[in-house]
Design brief:
Blueprint (H helix, E strand, L loop, with lengths): L7 H13 L2 H9 L5 H27 L5 H9 L1 H34 L2 H4 L2 E2 L2 E2 H19 L6 H25 L23 H8 L7 H11 L8 H26 L3 H10 L4 H48 L6 H21 L2 H29 L5 H20 L9 H29 L3
Antiparallel strand pairs: 1-2
Helix pairs in contact: 1-8, 1-10, 1-11, 1-13, 2-11, 2-13, 3-10, 3-11, 3-15, 4-5, 4-15, 5-7, 5-13, 5-14, 5-15, 7-13, 8-11, 8-13, 9-16, 10-15, 11-12, 13-14, 15-16, 15-17, 16-17
């Protein structure tokens, strides 16, 4: 069902699509509103944090027989963390599935623009949108329930080439079009329209997640760890896919700044389109590549979303199956697990606006990355390796996620930023002290 050997090139494309989703596209476009400082976060975050996070987390899963992230976290961080991670990871997967179900449906419905269907609303949603949602949902159910090589293993390579074509096409326009100028990085200035409400730390670090570092990736790696034939494939599959995603994010951040003239123009466009990144991407594609090639770009965007949404629900199924001890060879038992997962996903879609969904997804995503990085620290210490590879990113991401709680308007939204940042530092220090004691406890127990 899930342990099916696949060739490395196919695993690479599947992993790239699993982790890419809308993050390196939507997140990069919205994150570019902060200015050229976004280039630094994507570059250094992708190389020293995201790719290391994905690579080591993937190897840990591989060396534990393809175990899901909550199970490996439980090995190195304790039984209590295993329970927390089971609930948190499953919840994040459902949220990701909901986000990546609603957005491609909205984009396809907008492109079709059938007046006879678009003008008729049901509960605030057009019939056209509901029909597209239904079609994508049927695909999600099939991809979640069937063996990994039946749908995912066959169509993902096609989607993978579409994703790469999309990025290369935009890059060619940027480099050789002559019409667009990419802003240079000259300072750490926060260029977003409301800089006071959205400071670079922590908001940029959560807005651009998948292009720099994303905890969601560590939930996807076990899917491919179960399909790898040789451990030597880990570097090109896990590290390579993340670096590729960072390049895609750089391309979209650059075109977002250049297309509207400068960062101020980008901020104006975000306000004009109500933060709907899908519409902005459609506008960019039509203007830069023309209507004919723009269809391929939109196909690539939809493919990115769908191919992360289906594996999000698949990961949720595996996580639930792992901690409930339910074997997955029997279709009936897979269906029992999937019904509540898809029901919850639909409740989120019809209950929350997109921007709210995206904001909570971004914070949960980076919080999961921080926990995964602490697991990596414990793993590296146990293996006698240099823990700094995981420790420095773990401290950075813990501070980002902790300070977000105190700074973000969606959470506490403290106006006294000095106090908010100090509280974030206090939480980070407390986590560090707790981890020191946990590592000493692991040493005493000889965790393996």
């Amino acid at each position: 069902m899930d342990y099916v050997p696949l060739p490395r090139w196919r695993i690479f494309l599947i992993q790239l699509l699993n982790i890419a989703g809308l993050g390196p596209i939507f997140g990069a476009v919205l994150g570019a509103a902060y200015g050229p400082v976004a280039f630094l976060w994507i570059t250094f975050g992708g190389i020293f944090m995201g790719a290391a996070h994905d690579f080591i987390a993937g190897v840990i899963s591989l060396r534990h027989d393809g175990a899901s992230l909550p199970e490996t976290a439980g090995v190195y961080l304790g039984g209590g963390m295993k329970i927390v991670m089971r609930l948190f990871s499953a919840g994040l997967m459902i949220l990701v599935g909901a986000v990546f179900l609603s957005q491609p449906a909205s984009l396809v419905a907008a492109r079709l623009d059938v007046p006879s269907l678009e003008g008729i609303a049901f509960g605030g949603f057009s019939w056209l949108l509901l029909i597209v949602l239904g079609v994508i949902l049927v695909y999600y159910i099939a991809a979640t329930l069937l063996p990994v090589d039946k749908i995912i293993g066959r169509i993902y390579p096609v989607f993978g080439f579409a994703l790469l074509f999309m990025a290369v096409g935009i890059l060619v326009v940027l480099l050789f079009g002559g019409e667009y100028t990419i802003p240079e990085f000259t300072s750490f200035e926060n260029c977003i329209a409301d800089a006071k409400a959205f400071p670079i730390v922590p908001m940029l670090f959560t807005t651009i997640a998948c292009g720099a570092i994303s905890g969601f990736h560590a939930t996807q790696s076990p899917l491919m760890a179960r399909c790898m034939r040789n451990e030597r494939e880990s570097r090109s599959v896990f590290y390579g896919a993340m670096i590729s995603e960072s390049i895609i994010a750089l391309v979209w951040a650059a075109i977002a700044m250049a297309f509207w003239g400068d960062v101020a123009g980008l901020n104006g466009a975000i306000a004009e389109y109500g933060g709907q990144a899908a519409v902005m991407i459609d506008v960019i594609a039509n203007k830069t590549l023309g209507p004919a090639l723009a269809v391929f770009v939109i196909f690539g965007v939809v493919a990115c979303a769908i191919t992360s949404g289906d594996t999000a629900f698949r990961s949720a199924r595996l996580i639930v199956a792992d901690f409930m001890g339910v074997e997955q060879r029997t279709l009936r038992k897979r269906i029992y697990i999937c019904i509540p997962l898809f029901a919850l996903g639909l409740l989120i879609i019809f209950g929350l606006p997109f921007q709210t969904m995206w904001s909570y997804f971004a914070w949960m995503n980076q919080t999961l990355a921080a926990v995964t990085l602490w697991m990596i620290v414990a793993y590296l210490r146990h293996r006698g390796r240099a823990v700094w590879v995981g420790l420095i990113p773990a401290l950075v991401m813990t501070y980002v996620c902790a300070s977000y709680i105190f700074v973000s308007p969606l959470m506490l939204g403290m106006q006294n930023r000095t106090a908010a940042y100090l509280l974030g530092g206090g939480v980070t220090l407390a986590v560090l002290v707790a981890m020191i004691f946990k590592l000493k406890d692991n040493d005493a127990k000889g965790i393996s």
